[in-house]
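During the first year of the project, the team set up a workflow for recording each protein of interest as an amino acid sequence followed immediately by a discrete structure-token representation. This format lets reviewers and collaborators read both layers of information side by side without switching files. As required by the reporting guidelines, we include two representative entries from the current panel. The first entry is reproduced here exactly as it appears in our internal archive.
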Amino acid sequence: MSLSQITLSLSRAAEEHHEQVINPWIVGAITIAILLAMIGALVAFGGGREHT
């Protein structure tokens, strides 16, 4: 078996097992939304309290 045939068979095998991947931009947007919500909750909770 020649090197080109091995390479071709490996590339075909890799293409057959394609998994659905979550878009990294969506993961980043969800992470930013969670962090901003946590900062908003922190500011809302601490905004009405006196400093000691």
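The second entry, processed by the same pipeline in the following quarter, appears below.
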Amino acid sequence: MSADRLFRSLPPARAALLAVLVLLLWSVVGTSWFLRTYLGPVTPDQVLFHLQNGGLDYADPRMLWRACRCLMAVLALTGASLWLLRRMRRWHGRALLAVLGMGAVVSVQATVSDPCEPEPDGGDYLARHYVDPRDVGAQPPAAKPDVLVVFVESLDEAYTRPRAPGAALLPQLTRLQDEFQTLGELHNLSGASWTVGGMFSALCGVPLQPVGLMSHNSLEYSRRFFQGGQCLTDLMASAGWDISFYGGASLKFAGKGRFLQDHQVARRFGAEEWRRRGVAVPSEGWGLLDSELLAQAWADMQRPRQGDAPRMSLLLTVDTHGPNGAHDVSCLPGDDVDEDDEPADIMREALRCTDHVVAQLVQRFLAQRDGRPKVVWVQGDHLNPEPLLDAELQPQPRGRTVFHALVRVDAKGHPLPVDDQQRNFTHVDILPTLAEAIGWRWQREPHRLGLGVSLLAQPASATLAEQDGMATLNARLSCRSPLFQRLWMGVS
């Protein structure tokens, strides 16, 4: 009877292969579960980009510990499955393997979705619409403003609309948004659905794609970051702006530091840089939390200027990072902070903290009376894949969108007129919009840069989201683009 056992009847080499197969299947199930639980549904681009650019050892240690626990569970389930296979009849064992295989397939399908749908003629959608900033002859303004751009981690527009009016999650940013200018609905493209992707798409006008991962040139690709493309920071640096980046997380995570360095952000601060300055960075979490991060950023922004150079300051917060935000005990004095709070309580606290310190930074920046015009742009870097407080927010019949607000003031501190409008746009439209808000002008392809259209243009031009619809736009831009790969490598 024992000869009828599937595992025992196999030669040693095949039994070893079977053990590897079982481990692989459970690894697929475990990895998919981990991604779905802690990051929400993901795209192949998101997974491949992080594999290519690395830096996972600089992620939140709590997430790494969760990953270790998931790995231990995978090993335990593999051991249990092999124990069962040694005792099962042949057809029972095959049925167990079939169930494991189907479970792996279902788990991947529930976790990873690829929206790519090529154009009917097989053409390169990105190349068809891309306007290279290097080719338009952009001219900077005569009066160069100081610029503040804040990317707030995973900030949904819906956080400004709680179901209960008295349960405001972002009271100060909601008020600032009412005072400033919003431009309609900022939709999240697939290639802008993670932090570096959201920042890159907004500053460079194209969604981020992984390139060269499976090719013999993969190492060469990974050492470059859009080398042949030009981003807003390149334009600004070439015209004399002094550009700084302030982030709480490590610059080594997911290629962020290389992106900033390759696109002329001269001064870059992440977790390691803050430690070298003597700032106490928490050992757990993603890095320096928002209360201290924005205090340090503001202090650095008060440094003496080099000559009369205008400044551009980029910030990226961390407190509201998924899956449930972070305790920031020094943020709101008097708050009842309990380390054992439920995840929803922690996220509410994180939102209140980030709301307070970001609004305070913006107000301080605008309150400077130094005779310089100023431009402020605040936005979520991307949507949180799994909105923890979704049940507390008003329904969004047309889908979730990203928080954003724009304000421009003249040299005397007077806000410039705003044109209230309701547009449908994506991260790629931010590049030309911010360029025009800062005062850049260009004659060739007016109001267009990258794949975007300036939302300040009069008369208005249709964005790609308005022209083709979000479903088609996302499907086309999720496909591999030969032009993007040439721009990445700096090949004309």
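For the second entry, the following points were noted during internal review. The mean pLDDT is 86. Residues 12-38 form the longest helix (27 residues). Both points are flagged for discussion at the upcoming steering committee meeting.
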